[in-house]
């Protein structure tokens, strides 16, 4: 079950059982309640609106639809399953292999034995990773990890910067101030012993609202692979703190309607991804040599 599915199911279960929600029906309040970024909340709300459980008023605010679930059987969502934990473990292993350009085939049976899981479950995990572009299935051979290419990364970031800046321009009048303040809370550089907070889904805020389907399709097709690598490259608190600072700078510029400043901050942030990945590769190579 994805985070979006969990939120949607939990909202419906709460409404079915009590007829009300334990939080205000706003994106920010839901994000705080579930402890997640705004992106899965936004997707869950969109699906609930489509199902007629929630509706958007003319002023953009959300409200519940009375008796929308009347007569339906609604079960509360289950907590994280062992399969979800296995999914994350294998994903981390695959990303590390990709960055080290280890293209040795992954075998379903060997992976199942390594993690103490069933072969069918492992095959399902591999299929999801293939959907994200991290591996590919080669008949009669197994699953091959997509090797990281530094030149491909540079080419991708060149196009990403151009398209994402355009998305930011197109979405500038579609930002909600309350939502931006919520994003600011979700991206907080740590101070002292406090660890940093970092919302990896921040960029979806303008990509989803830009109104250009070609931009959205580019990121839907190519971002999963690189986002997985970039997120994995946040190896320590220092890197996380710097990324949180960069996120905050972008959001603060948007709040001040400083469009030029927001563009400059976003451009700088995207370009910094190169060095973050390079540091991660050096780190993995040093660990490999040490072992």
TrEMBL record:
Pfam families given in the database record: FCD, GntR
HTH gntR-type domain location: 80-148
Domain of life: Bacteria
SMART domains per UniProt: FCD, HTH_GNTR
GO molecular function: DNA binding; DNA-binding transcription factor activity
Protein keywords: DNA-binding, Transcription, Transcription regulation
InterPro entries named in the record: GntR_C (IPR011711), TF_FadR/GntR_C (IPR008920), Tscrpt_reg_HTH_GntR (IPR000524), WH-like_DNA-bd_sf (IPR036388), WH_DNA-bd_sf (IPR036390)
Protein name: DNA-binding GntR family transcriptional regulator
